[in-house]
Amino acid sequence: MTEPLLEAENVAYAYPNGPAALAGVSVRIEAGSKTAIVGPNGAGKSTLLLMLNGMLRPASGAIRFDGRPLAYDNRSLRELRRRVGFVFQNPDVQIVAPTVEADVAFGPVNLGLPPDAVRRAVRDALGYVGLRGYEKRPPHHLSGGEKKRVAIAGILAMEPAVLVFDEPTNTLDPASSEEVMELLDELASSGRTVLVSTHDVELAYRWADSVVLMEHGSVLARGPPEAVFSDHALLASARLKPPALLDLYNELGLRGVIDRDAPPKSVLEFTDRIERAMHGHAPARDRNGRIYLCNADLTGGDEVRRLVERGTVDHVGAMGTRAKEFANRERILLDYTYGVIDKCILKALIGENSLIITTGGMVEHVHRRIGEYSAESGRALAVIPVREPEDASLAKDDRIPI
Amino acid sequence: MYEVLEDFAQTNNLRETSPGLKLFIGLASILLCVSSPGPVAPLLVAASMSAAVLALAKIPARFYAKLLLVPVSFAAMSIVVILFITGGGAVLLEVPGLPLAITADGANLALLLLARVFGGMCSLYFIALTTPMTEIFDLLRKLRVPAVLIDLAMLTYRFIFILIEEAGQIYRSQVMRLGYRRFRESVHSFGMLAGALFIRTWESGESLVLAMDARCYDGKLGIPSDSRPVSVPALAGGLLYLSAVLGVSVSTGGVVLV
User: Does A263 have pLDDT greater than 70?
Assistant: First the structure.
C-alpha cells in the first residue's frame, strides 16, 4: 500500500463541556483520491475535517500530512493550511472582504506574494470557477452558488494540494450543486486530492471513489462506495438510506431479474445491464449515433452553432465551467450540464447524435471514457472532434451528410 | 433602501469615472456649501449636483427625490425653531397672543441653513450614488490612511449586510408568531431581537477568526488596487465648476474666514 498523503490515526476529541465528538477515528486519504466522508448530522464529520488542516488539535491520536505528524506552531500551521485548503460550509462565514476580487486575493496577499503574482492568482482562480468579470462585485449581491464558487476560488488561489470541502452542496439548489460537484471533479482530474463531507449518499455514491461512513464520532465502514452503501444494516445504523440506483439494483438482483456481480455506478451502466438481462445480449443496431466533441478553447462559436442549427446534433452537453461559459456566450442551448458523457453515450446507443463541449484536459478524459466504454461493451462509438476554424474545410469533409 | 443605494452605486453611468475625482468634487462642494456666507452658492451646488446625479449618472428622479426627503424633513423641523428663536432686524410676522415672532435676520439665517443642508446633502448623495464603498477603500489606502482603520472599515462594511440579513430573519420569524401585536409584546420582542443579534454577532465574530486563520491570515486584507487614470477634460471640468461656485460664493457675500 502506498503512503497516504493525509492520515488521521486513532484521533479523539471532545468539545468543552460536551460528549466525545470523535472517539478513535482513523482515516487514510491517498494522494489524488476523491474521498467522501458520509454520515448524519452530528456524526463528527466537520470536527474531523477541521483537524486535517490544524484548526482543531486532537486530544489524542495523530494527524499526519505527507508522512509527518502536524506541528502546531504558527509557521507550520500556515504552511499546512496553504497546502490543505478548507472550504467552509457557509460561504458567508468564509468570505471576509467587500469585493470578490479582494476576497480571492486574501490568501495570496497573506502569504506575502508580490502584487503581480497576487493578481495572476486571482485571475486564474476566478477563471477556474467561471467567475471572471465578477471582480468588483460585492459578495452580498451574489447568489448562493456564486458565493460558494467565490469561496472555492479563495482557496484555489493559494494552490493547495488537498482541498477539503465541508458539506459542499448544502443549501444549494440542484443546478448549483451539480456545478459545484463538477468543479470538484475538474479539480480531482487535474491531480488534486479532494475530500468532502456530506450526508447526501446519492452524491457520494456517484462522485467518490472512496467512502468513509461515520456515526457518533467513530468510523463504521470504509471502502469503495458500492461496497459500503450495499450494506443496508450498516446504513440504517448511521441513519442513512441507500442510493436509489444501488437500491434498485439490489432489489432486482434479489428477484432474479439481473445477476448480482458488481453494482452499477451510473444510469448508463445499469441500462446496459438490464438490456443484456432482458435480451440475453446487447442487440445490434443498424447505426449508433455519433458523439461530436468540441474543445471550447480552440473552436469558434459559429462552427458549433452550425452543427446545432443544421440538426446534425440532437443534444448538446457542456462539461466544466469554462465550457458552460462558452455555450452561454455563444447562445447555445444546453441539454446536459452534468453526467454529460454518460448521457451522450446513452443517446448514441439509441441512434441520436450529440455534441460535448469541453475544455483543456477534459477533452482527453472524454476520449478515454468513450474508448473504455466501446471496448467494454463491444459497441464502437465514434467521437468526432469539431475542428478549429483554420481547418474548417477539413471538418466539413469529415462530416457525413445525413 | 440600503441595497438600492448600493445597487445604484454599482451600476450608475458615472461608475467608470475616477473615484478620486468624484470624491474630490463631492467633498469640495460640501466645503463650499458650508463655508458660503450667502444662500446662492449652496443652492447652485444643490442644483448642479442634482443635475449630475439625474442627467449624468442616470439615477431615477423618483428615487432621488425620495432620498432627499429624508434630510430635508429633518432640516425643515430645525429651521422652524431657528425662524422663531433668532432675533434681530425687522419683524416680519408675529404670532398673536404669544411672544413669538419671525424677524428678517431669523428668516435669512433659516434660508441660509436650508440652502447649506440642501447643497451638502446633494453633494453627499452625489458621492454615495456614484461611488461604491469598495472604491472608497482603495482611495483611502492611496491616501495612506492607516491600514488598521481601513481593514476595520472593510470588515464592518462586509458584515453590515450579514447583520441586516440576520436581523431581518429574526424579525420576520417574530412577526410570523405575532411578536409585535401589542405594545408590551413589541417591547419584549425587540429586546429578544437585540439579544439574539448580539449572540449571533459574537458567534460570527468567532467564526470569522476561524475562517481567516484557515486562510493563512497574517494581518493583511485587500489587494493592491489598479488605478483608473483621471481624464483631463473631466478634471478640468470639475475644477472649472468648483471655481465657478467659489466665485459665486465670494461675489454674493464675501469670504468668511472667521
Answer: yes
Cβ-defined contact of A118 to B211 (cutoff 8 Å): no
Range of the domain at B50: 2-131+229-251
User: What is the distance in angstroms between the Cα of A114 and the nearest Cα belonging to chain B?
Assistant: 10
How long, in residues, is chain B? 258
If you average pLDDT over residues A1-20, what whole number do you get? 85
Mark whether B233 and B123 lie in a shared domain: yes
The Cα of A299 is separated from the nearest Cα of chain B by a number of Å equal to: 32
Task: Give me the number of domains chain B comprises.
Answer: 2
According to the model, what pLDDT value does residue A115 have? 87
Half-sphere exposure for A294 (CA within 13 Å, toward CB)? 29
Contact of A133 with chain B, judged by CB distance below 8 Å, is answered with: no
Q: Are B21 and B70 in the same domain? A: yes
Do B157 and B174 reside in the same domain of the chain? Answer: yes
Q: Rounded to two decimals, what is the model's pTM?
A: 0.77
Residue B34 lies in a domain: yes
Better-predicted residue by pLDDT, A202 or B84: A202
Tell me the per-residue pLDDT of A357-389, one tens digit each, with 9 for 90 and over: 888 777 888 888 888 888 887 778 888 888 765
Pick the residue from chain A with its C-alpha nearest to B210: A55
For residues A267 and A226, the answer to whether their CB atoms sit within 8 Å is no
Reported ipTM: 0.70
Which residues of A are less than 8 Å from B215 in CB distance? 81, 94, 106-107, 110, 154-155, 158
B192 and B244 part of one domain? no
Q: Is the pLDDT of residue A64 over 90?
A: yes
Give chain A's domains with CATH numbers: 4-238 (3.40.50.300), 245-279 (no CATH), 291-385 (no CATH)
What is the C-alpha separation between B229 and B191, in angstroms, rounded?
A: 50
Residue pair A318/A358 in contact (Cβ under 8 Å)? The answer is yes
- Is the Cβ pair B134, A98 closer than 8 Å? yes
Does a structural domain hold residue B220?
Answer: no
Q: How far is A306 from chain B (nearest CA, A)?
A: 36
Nearest CA to B60 out of B75, B50, B49, B69 is that of: B50
A:B CB pairs within 8 Å: 97
Residues B118 and B13 in one domain: yes
CA–CA separation, A143 and A173 (whole Å): 11
User: Is a pLDDT exceeding 80 seen at residue A200?
Assistant: yes
Which residue among A92, A110, A138 sits closest to B216, beta carbon to beta carbon? A110
The verdict on residue B55 lying in a domain is yes
Instruction: Determine the distance from the C-alpha atom of residue B138 to the mean position of all C-alpha atoms in its chain, rounded to a whole number.
Output: 19
* Range in A31-45, A151-165, A197-211, A386-400 with the lowest mean pLDDT: A386-400
Q: How far apart are CA A157 and CA A103, in angstroms?
A: 10
Q: Is A86 on the interface with B (CB under 8 A)?
A: yes
C-beta separation of A354 from A289 below 8 A: yes
Q: How far is A150 from chain B (nearest CA, A)?
A: 14
Residues in chain B where the model's pLDDT stays below 70? 1-3, 222-228, 254-258
